[in-house]
Amino acid sequence: MKLIDAVILTKVAIRVLLISLFVIIITYFAYTNLFTQKPTPTQIFSPDLGCGTIDTSVIPNIPLKLPNEIAVPAPSTLNIDVPPLLFVYRIPPASETFATKSKAQQLAKTLGFNPYGYTKPDPITMLWSDQNKGRILKVRTKDLSFEYYHTPEHLPKLPNLELPPIPKSKSLALNLLSSLGIITKEYQEGKIHVFPVYFKGTVAHETSALIQAHAIEVDIQPRIVAFAYPKKILKLKKLTHPIDFKQYATQNTDIIYHGYITLDFPHQGPTRIFIRSTHNELLKDTLKIIHIPVRYNLPPCGTYRTLDVPEALKLIQNKKASVAYVKIKGGDSINPDYKTIPQITNVSIDSIKILYLYDDKKNHLIFPVYYLSGEAVFADGKSGTLGFYTPAIEVNAAPPSATPSPH
Description:
The strands form two sheets. The protein has a nine-stranded antiparallel beta sheet with strand order 2-3-4-5-12-11-8-6-7. Strands 1, 9, 10, 13, 14, 15, 16 and 17 form an eight-stranded mixed beta sheet that branches. It has seven helices and 17 strands. It has helices spanning 3-35, 41-44, 100-110, 166-180, 185-188, 282-285, 309-317; strands at 85-90, 119-122, 125-130, 135-140, 145-150, 191-200, 203-206, 215-221, 223-229, 255-262, 271-275, 286-291, 302-305, 322-328, 344-359, 365-378, 383-391. It is of the alpha+beta class.
């Protein structure tokens, strides 16, 4: 073969190779775009419904007659950023351990009682009583929840000139928790509500006048991870299997949403501390403590699709939401007397937040609810606040066969 023929054949071969490579590349991109499209956010954020169907009948509801029409705003005007999914957490069974008794005794010792001087009014309660100083400590050994308080005859005299300033009460309450050895990061970063209170017997009532207050009540709602994920999953080219988002609840990811744990009232947490003074001493400063240890398994038991805010507003308009809270301006937030609430003539919603309801009785779950609140007008012309609970997740999305795992 002549040299010139070889050169011509080489050029032809190179052209054929380049054309072939071009065709292969075009074919690949055509295939990936036509047959392997990038997953949509709905496909990426797919709920696993791992906790089964959630019974929403446990959501607290105050039986009040509502006006025929409730004004709700455009969803875009409510300042809230909701995640596509929300975690639900399983509460493990509470049970005594070998260390339960010693932990209760250590708590009693820290609070100034003789650790061995207790009685047992029932099998799961340890009771300490200091009659000289009018102090009582009740510890529920099943979950180490406890109540510590002074009897009515040992309340501070009014006016209580040793009350701490409202702003200082928050840090003082956290320090008192630390003294008891029950402070955690979730409490330190939790939501804190503060109320001046006076007592009728052993029951606290809110007051607007510090001169009438026996103590400052500090309600702490621990923080909980509502949802989390890394940004990189939004750049996935394809989705070969559902993503297990539950793993990210314990990781330091790019995107983290938080909620706050509540029991019944939207401002009430599992820990309530009543501060009487600022001596920076646990026994001198504390008038009463109510503490329920928050227990939940990690990782969460499931992920659920977040209920759209317009759907939550529609539940309120259709009278299918639960009344969570009502207060006449200047009234009692701690123990409101609902029998004396006048007819509600007008309600307008203006705020929304995500709370986590601690249900250790029926579902044994910590699950998210929306708290939507706004102004209420009453028949006597007074105004106040009215708030509603709605589920924050599509609770009916779980298949009928899905049931919570046994406890």
